[in-house]
Amino acid sequence: MTADNQREHQPLVLVADDEPDVLSAVVPFLQRSGFRVLAAGDGLLALDEIRRHSPDVCVLDVLMPGADGRQVLRALRQEENWVPVLLLTQVGEAVERAMALEEGADDYLNKPFDPHELVARIRAVLRRTRTEGPPLATAPVLVSSFGLRVDRVGRRAWLGQRELVITPKGFTLLEYLMVHQDELIDRARLLEVLWGFEEAVGTRAVDSRVAELRRVLGEDAAEPRWIATVQGRGYRFVGEVHGEEGLRRV
């Protein structure tokens, strides 16, 4: 394969941020990591670049002139453009993160961030969006092995014909793990997803929610069908997951 052909097969990443220092650091780092990169200094320019070049993934700052990252995300989803989107958010803005995920963001990363972490998140998003059916981040229904079905719109879940009784935080945990299927998610990350930075809650609270899910699912932690423990690190959803457009009762 020639160098030009190899470059054509590299994923195309659009990075939109109004801070020149961020772009000047992130763009060359992504290029060195094997990506082709487009840069935009505001949300409106980002939308134009996305429509013209159809990138494989977009990294959008939530605070930009013209249109912020969430406005760009909403515009894309209204156009039924399901390009994966990773939002750069401010530390502590738990409400912003929750709303962004509900609006169809595939993931988020808090600023300031480690460029290596950004690369890892981009690669993870690309892996889980290269599947048949709607992207997991935007699918109204998540379906897994052994008859597990999660209705994200109605906030209900079934195991076969049995509707599961899950607390709101337990449901959020299950949904997040399924969307990030086969990824190792550490306890600190799950703590942030469930409670944000505003509440003083220890990581053992995450373990309690996982235990809740295992009780509800009737799962043996030693032989997990869905949620595996990675000792000293966190959890991984090991069941296969695909998205569906609407809930079909089994």
Question: Can you tag this structure with a few keywords?
Answer:
single chain, 250 residues, alpha/beta, five-stranded parallel beta sheet, 13 strands, 22% strand, transcription, Sig_transdc_resp-reg_C-effctor, CheY-like_superfamily
What's the short version?
The modification 4-aspartylphosphate is found at residue 61. By secondary structure, the chain is of the alpha/beta class.
Structure in words:
With 250 residues, the chain is α/β, with parallel strands linked by helices. It has nine helices and 13 strands. The protein has a five-stranded parallel sheet, sandwiched between helices. A five-stranded antiparallel sheet has the order 9-8-7-6-13, with helices on one face. A hairpin with a 4-residue loop joins strand 7 and strand 8 (156-159). Helix 3 packs parallel to helix 4 and helix 8 crosses helix 9. The longest helix has 15 residues, at 115-129. The termini are far apart. The mean pLDDT is 86. This is Response regulator transcription factor. Residues 12-126 form the Response regulatory domain. Residues 139-239 bind DNA. InterPro entries: CheY-like_superfamily, OmpR/PhoB-type_DNA-bd, Sig_transdc_resp-reg_C-effctor, Sig_transdc_resp-reg_receiver, WalR-like, WH-like_DNA-bd_sf. Residues 139-239 form the OmpR/PhoB-type domain.
